[in-house]
Structures are given as C-alpha cells and as structure tokens.
Amino acid sequence: MNYIVLATVAYFMVALEVILDKFLLSSKRISHPAIYAFYSGLLTAFVFFMVPFGFHTMTPYFAMVSIVTGIIFTYGFLTLFFAINKSEASRVMPVVGAVVPLVTFVLSGSLLSEYLNGVQLAGVLALIAGGLLISFDFPLKNKKKFFHGFYYSILAGILFAIEVTSFKYLSDNYTFANVFIWTRWGVTLGALSLLLIPHWRKVILNSFGSFKNTKKEHHQTGGLFILNKVLGGAGSILTKKAITLGSATVVSALVSTEYVFILLIGLVMSFHFPRIFQEKEDVLGITQKIVSILIISLGVVLISR
To answer: What is the model's pLDDT at position 249?
Structure first.
C-alpha cells in the first residue's frame, strides 16, 4: 500500500481517537489530563506481547535514544490533552498539524539529510498556512488573538516532531518492530514519570478509587477509554509504518488530513453534545474553517505528487 494512503487511514483512526479524547476529558468522565496520559501510557505496555515477533537488543546509545523518544511521545500527548481540554479539537489539531511538519522538516534536513522537491515543499507550506489560518480566533477584537490552549498546542507539535524524526532515525538503523517495541517501553516509563510531579501524583492516585465504583457510567467510561486507545494504537502503528516506508516530513504534513476529519466529525457531534463539542457554527467561523480545509487539501495534493 502506498505510504501516503497508509498515513491517511492512520490519521482517520487518530481523528476518531481525538474526538473521544475530547468527549472523555470535557465531559469530566476523566477529570485531569495527567490521569488520561498516565493510563494511556500504561496501556502501551502491551508491546511485551510483541517481543517474540521482532525484539532484539540495541547498542546502549540507540537503546537510550529509543527510551527518550518514547518519553517525549508521552509528554507530547500530555500537552495535547491539556490543549484539547481547554479548546475545540478542530482548532487544537490544526495548530499541532502546522507545527509538526515545520519542525520535522528542519530536523529531518539537518539530522537525516532528507529533502523535498519544490512541489512537495509548496505542499508543506500550504498545510502550515491552512493550520495557522484556523488557529486565529476571528474577529480579532481582543488582545488575546489565539484560542485557549494555543501554546499547549505549539508545545505538543514540537514534541511530536522530535518524536517523529527520532523514530525515523532509529528505523534507519533497526527494524520497524524492534524500534516500535523499544520506544513504547519509553512511553510506559514516561507515564510512570508523571508520578514524580506531586500534584499529578495526587490526582492519579486518587483516580484509583474509581475502580471500586460499580456505576454503569464508570463501566461505559472504561469501555470507551479502551476502544479509544485501540484506535490510537492502531493509528500510531500505521503512522510509524508509513514513516519507515516514505518521507518523515510528508507523513508529518499529512497530519493535516486528521484535523479535517476532526472538524467534520466535531461539527456532527456538536449538534448532539453542544456543551462538550463547542464548535463555532456562525458564518465567519464556518467560512474560516472551510477556507482552511481547501488550503489543506491543496497541500495534500501537492505533497502527493
């Protein structure tokens, strides 16, 4: 399968995951982003079952890079959860999607000697422009021009870009399965490291008490969380596979298709859960998002050439 098609399918699955993230966090079914990041990270421990299918030892240097890459991935998701908890998912993800390819482009060029042709570079710039356009909160009447969670979105994009570039670097030296296993162990360690922060440790430890609650809502929350992480895990595997098959910068740029999916799904969900999915439905807001989608679509066409 073409790596661009593979990446697009992966980002659709991740879009569904983000919508569920927003639902679980904003509905207060999960009370704090640190709790969400902690359990998400622990679930990646499933890679122990993959050990017979591709694990082998690495040199100390590459083992350290793999573990650190996984930890960075955990904190990227933590900052993303903070951003999603504060604002519309259809605004957060475009900013993340704009930052990731830009930073990945810089890192890939300097560390991986990976360069794009002129048409592909124009596509990346179009994706970035579309992401930036949707990040502004029009009309610009207040001093605060950006949405709540904007700076968390920027930080999340930087962390994800570092993780993407590192994964590509590791994959150039080891098999995909082995790199995936090692980096997921880093994700688990990153989740455990959240316990080192006193406030986060308190809210995480307090969440253990919910396991004793037999209410139907808690069972539903657990089921949604597991489904969500299955979607996210499958999307992550497909994304990493696409990176190993093609350009890390192009795959990162295709994350823009993810927030097109998020916008469309979010708009539908806003009619059913208006307090959770507070998508702007006024003419200016819809026009802004449609123009952004058109620019993003142009970018996808260009980088596919």
So the answer is: 67
pLDDT tens digits, 110-122: 776 667 778 878 8
Residue with tokens 């920027």: 154
SS (H, E, C) 140-158: CCCCCCECCCHHHHHHHHH
In sequence order, what are the residues at sequence separation of 6 or more whose Cβ sits closer than 8 angstroms to the Cβ of residue 245?
3, 6
pLDDT (tens digit per residue) in 102-149: 788 778 777 766 677 788 788 888 877 887 787 676 665 555 566 778
Considering only CA atoms, which of 217, 94, 197, 189 is closest in space to residue 150?
94
Q: Helix 33-43 and helix 3-26: axis angle, to 10°?
A: 140
Indicate the burial class of 239 (C-beta count within 10 angstroms; 0-12, 13-18, 19 or more): buried
Q: How many other CB atoms sit within 10 Å of the CB of residue 140?
A: 10
Which residue(s) pair with 146 in the sheet?
A: 136
Low-confidence residues in the chain, pLDDT < 70:
1, 26-29, 31, 112-114, 135, 137-146, 209-219, 248-249, 252, 273-282, 304-305
Tokens of 297: 């679509």
3-class SS letters over 23-56: HHHHCCCCCCHHHHHHHHHHHHHHHHHHHHHCCC
Give the DSSP per-residue string, 141-208.
-SS--BPTTHHHHHHHHHHHHHHHHHHHHHHTTS-HHHHHHHHHHHHHHHHHHGGGSHHHHHHHHHHG
